[in-house]
Amino acid sequence: xxxxxxxxxxxxxxxxxxxxxxxxxxxxxxxxxxxxxxxxxxxxxxxxxxxxxxxxxxxxxxxxxxxxxxxxxxxxxxxxxxxxxxxxxxxxxxxxxxxxxxxxxxxxxxxxxxxxxxxxxxxxxxxxxxxxxxxxxxxxxxxxxxxxxxxxxxxxxxxxxxxxxxxxxxxxxxxxxxxxxxxxxxxxxxxxxxxxxxxxxxxxxxxxxxxxxxxxxxxxxxxxxxxxxxxxxxxxxxxxxxxxxxxxxxxxxxxxxxxxxxxxxxxxxxxxxxxxxxxxxxxxxxxxxxxxxxxxxxxxxxxxxxxxxxxxxxxxxxxxxxxxxxxxxxxxxxxxxxxxxxxxxxxxxxxxxxxxxxxxxxxxxxxxxxxxxxxxxxxxxxxxxxxxxxxxxxxxxxxxxxxxxxxxxxxxxxxxxxxxxxxxxxxxxxxxxxxxxxxxxxxxxxxxxxxxxxxxxxxxxxxxxxxxxxx
Length: 471
Ligand code: ARG
Fold this sequence. Notes:
about 475 residues, mainly alpha, Fumarase C, Chain B, domain 1, Fumarase C, Chain A, domain 2, Ribonucleotide Reductase Protein R1, domain 1, two-stranded antiparallel sheet, 6 strands, about 60% helix, about 5% strand, binds arginine
């Protein structure tokens, strides 16, 4: 028989229908997970007496041979292979004969596909956790290198207040840390064994699900069988986690793109990471950052597809769900590759300290002047108004905080003294931002040391987990 369901529907399948319904080109990515799941399933069938010892031995050997064929690129997919499950079962029967026909006992492709996807995602998430950590480490290295460069923070893309560049970079380390927490939290919901739910209602065969869970490294077994074969929350969750992470990367890239312009001139991209124009010889373009920003929209589009795919589905399994793989595979691929390339480029970025500092408008110190008056007892709003008038006076008379004389200052408030004006520098401004989480160099130095410890510990932990991956 060529097709699984030939006995019920006959052997003629319209060629166009075949092309339309087959998913092998996409789900063959899951081949090794499918085989691993089948090996453990066979062991379980032996344990409960469905397979004899010798039968399970033959089946497991057959599956291992198929694994080798796939790894060596020697597996030949046939035109009748609808998806990865049917391809492997077909080949198993070719190798082992009638014995191989027993492998699909007490399982359905509906619980099998969820198993494969979960195994794939567990490895992918562990890899992403590793890649995020490497990305954080690259940011940390750069923040050490550029300590204590000062530039300006922006709000509304207008110069706001002096800021340590390291402090800016640590902001992105913190964003990535939240991403990691989200991935770790949703990992718990991927880590639940679906196999044993059967097509949708369980099975009359007395399967040992705990045994399978233990062997495949799942922490728990799923409950309700209808939910088990219908549930793709774990895919939407992981996809959304990737989406938030990609938005973070995209925002970093947006800043880097701006800073790389002639107008800002803060940043230089090493030649090996930049591209030129086919017509304008003077150009050196930040394509990597632009592509990360662009690929973020592909990921957001894929997430949208996943939501729309599920919203109208009746329980339990529906073939629509086959489409989830296209999206989640693309999301995982894009997210991983963006993290990888950023970790390469970030430590090699060159910041132009002089330009960054010269670019800071003295008026970014206005809030410092306000706070200094507040420290002398002036109510905040009055101090704000005094400084507002000083700024207005400066703009009208083409002056700034540095070129104003003490007498001019004192016209606005007699409380302003020489020391207060001398202290009106960008260095002093950052030095004084000592509230927790502020940009003072002392605090930032402590933050760098804290992240160094934390990331080193995490990298050790996640590298070990990655080594014991599902395959
Ligand atoms: N290729 C299918 C998918 O990805 C596998 C499950 C097929 N189940 C079925 N009853 N046709 O969802």
